[in-house]
Amino acid sequence: MAILKKLLIEDKSQLEDHISNLQSGLEYDSIKSDIQRAQDKWLKNSLSLPLLTKLCEAYDQDDESSLSSSASSFSLYSEVYYEDAKYLSQQALAYFAYSLYINRAFAAVSNTNIHTKAIEGTQPLTYFERQELSQTYLEQALELLDNLYAYLELNIDAFPEWENSKAYTEYHSLFIKTASEFSELVNINDSRRTFKLLRTEMEYIEGITLTNYLSAALIAEIKAELAKAEPSPKFVTLNGYLKRHIANASIVRLMKSHLVKIDAQAIIQIETAGDHIDKKYQADRADVSAKAAFHQSAADEWLNEAKKYLNANASSFTNYTADDASTWTRNDLANQTGKTIGF
User: Fold this and answer.
1) Average of pLDDT values for 289-305?
2) Most Cβ neighbours (<10 Å): which of 2, 102, 173, 223?
3) Global pTM exceeds 0.70
């Protein structure tokens, strides 16, 4: 695995540009290793190593003229795109790094033990408070990463390294691409952390159940049309049905395999290892079962709407042939895949 040793954030002042409430006594060297880890863990995989390398090189320039000279060496780049992408990348990196630093900052390691640091005149955070604070910064970092994705997509011609990367292919591989897009279908409060867990379930829904039921050729046809600047309205309508099915079915699968919290606004949140579950919002088994049944019913209904629409507009879809069945059921999928849809 290639590691980029040059960092996108190279001193404390650059970190403070994005996180204003840093500890006053925090030295850059104390958090530098976390910046390196965050850059390797998240930004390199999100941007691609070639693009991250160019952003780091551009950032190392001494003045605007040298930055402009560096940027001009890439035919599809311009200085303004370079500067904006660099800024958004630094913003996300700062929050990723601080989410890693928080837990480590409160521990002191000696030859004999590991203990919590004591700072005179302050009350140390509890383990759960540290976890919650770390997760808050992580969630913000993931939201900022979505902002970066949106900028890259909006200016795709300016970033060939992104367009030709594995990260770009993965980003475009699913019908639902962002946490905010998912929340418009099923409310997860725009949580990027929950969305990352849902990606695995969506990959299953698309790759197994829908592919077996619609055919890989039709799925590919739909995605190819949607990738166009102005896709056919009929494909857009069908996409709406499929996305609502995928969102609900993937929620059911995730609820069956993870700890679940349903908050006061009935927003489903998936708990990960180390999270502190607020007891007043912790869902009991009956709540989870009721929610799962609700979303399973919705998944079935949206799948049937997709079926009806395909049958009514079969001539518009090269890789689909209308059939006589009025609805699709979970039993239909079980017969084809050996698994009930959504489970």
Assistant:
1) 92
2) 102
3) yes
